Amino acid sequence: MTRRHARWVGGIVTLLLVGVVAGWIIRGVVRNRTATPAPVVDYGARMEALAAAAGSGGADGWPALTRALEQFETIETAMASDQPSTPGFGSPPIGPRRIARRLLDSGLPATLDAVAAADHFVRPAGTTAWSLANTDSSKAARSLSRVLTAAMNAAHEAGDRVARDRAFEWALAVARAHANQPTIHDRLTAGAVAAHALETLRSQVHANGLDEDAADVLDAVMDRQLAWPAYATALEGERLSVHNLIQLMFTDDGHGDGRFSPDRASVAFGGTPRQNPFAGIGGVFLASRVETTAIVDTYIDRLIADAACLPPARTFDSDDFLDDYGRRYVLVRAMLPGMAHAVRVDDKHALQVAATRVVLAIERFRSRHDALPGTLDDLGSVMGVVPVDPLHGGPLVYRRDPARVGGYVLYSTGYDATDDSADLPAVRTGGATHDGKDVLLTP
User: Fold this and answer.
1) 121-161: pLDDT as tens digits
2) Can you give the pTM of this predicted structure?
3) CB 216: neighbour CB atoms within 10 A?
4) 215, 197, 195: which is closest to 383 by C-alpha?
5) Which residue, 259, 193, 200, is CA-closest to 226?
6) Residues β-bridged to residue 90
7) In what order do the strands lie in the sheet with 427-428?
């Protein structure tokens, strides 16, 4: 190539480069002038609407629940201050039954009646960046559930079924209040609170029997208080929380996209801007706002679809799913809570409910026929459809056994649907529902 040709080629290349740079600058100016930032979304209001959708337009019971928990904590605190203490050893713990007796003599029962009668529960949305849910009620709710089960036991021993059933309904109402909240944390709290009451009731009924009318009363309590929203509601609430986090931590380029901004993230979590002009450069190497939102939505959509299936039909491996994405998506992994494990905790709650329904039906059958049923199929005459084992979709295992309290045993064959009855008692419902383990449902 001659020098003349080389100069021509160099000039053309230079002109092209100048044109590209000029075009990029002009495009940036035009995009900036035509940018229309999206309006800020009030995800807190959407969370509240999601909680309200669990009801049918009746009274909101969250204010009553708040009063009940405050009254309960006041009683606990007052009793603790009245406790004598030994120097060097402090005060002895206060037994749940003592607290239960004080509780029944206070104004708390009327407040708990209001909680039980509520149509739905809408907790005001939180204001922190990390979560739209203020879950401060969880600890008090779990403590109250232990006291209410103590009240159930005391009433049962005294032969006062009305008081026992009332305490049972209070506990399930506290659980329902949390199950109505669209977060996984609240769903876990609801399951723990309900488990205390359901296990206590099954133990009492299995050991001492129940007439048909009393079984009908308890079934009606469960009908009222165990009408929980689907687990998908909790996952949708988590989606809103993560979308809120993305809105706070990512820029808005006015064209539906943006980049992660350390300054915005710092401000969102109560800090101050880094005052470093180069601080935002790292966001260029991370997934954009659109990409991050898309992967979050896909992840939660897959979880919702999986949660609607019985465990054997679930195919979504959340860990493998996130592992398929590289370092550009590191923020996604940090923002998504451990949602997959919580689906199994909900399986455990479903097992608790199914087992309690079956135990009540067995006692109803015994009261009507003065004998235990031969198989669970015999219960169709007293309960219609017999619940399946929610861990695998097959039947629960029932066996008459004169050597056992109540004359029978009821258990689940676990996620693997394999009967390991030689190893009973295996895992109580108060523990984890381990793979490959049977779950004993009666004492």
Assistant:
1) 999 887 665 566 677 788 999 999 999 999 999 999 999 99
2) 0.86
3) 13
4) 215
5) 193
6) 86
7) 397-400, 408-412, 439-440, 427-428
